Amino acid sequence: MHKSLVYSLLAIICLVSCDTNREYDVYRSLPENGWHKDSIISFNVKEIDTTNRYNLFINLRNNSNYNYNNLYLITEMNFPNGKVISDTLEYEMAYPNGDWMGVGFGEIKESKLWYKAGVQFPESGTYQINIRQAMRKNGNVNGIQNLEGITDVGFRIEKP
Length: 160
Hints:
By secondary structure, this protein is mainly beta. It is built from 1 helix and 10 strands. It has one domain (22-158): Jelly Rolls, CATH 2.60.120. Helix content is 9%, strand content 46%. It has a 4-stranded antiparallel beta sheet with strand order 1-10-4-7, with no helix packed on it. Strands 3-8-5-6 form a 4-stranded antiparallel beta sheet, with no helix packed on it. It is globular and about 45 Å long.
């Protein structure tokens, strides 16, 4: 085995294993025909420390089939006691020149998008995070039926 390949593999292992801030990090893959406007991507967060504060992120992977420079999402955080916090979020996905803001080699780009900072989960139990796309074409009230180009949606919780 070449020394450069061994060093590269060791570097990748170190980078992946040294993610000490991660508390939760899960991805859901979307169908190839697109993210349907009624499809809700859910994440169940169990047994999170109720005394700490966390930063929350929505992670997205997109490819060149994504035809927009921004993305609208509707999120819900469902607390164990039934309380729900809803947000409508807008994220820029591309620079004005059309280059993707995400990172990655090849066609797939990954974006780590701020959702909330300094969040405390005050109740014991399971929290459910729901995410759905809310994209519309200009002048059209109806949402885009199948949003193409988003391949995966993730949710991440980190210690600050």
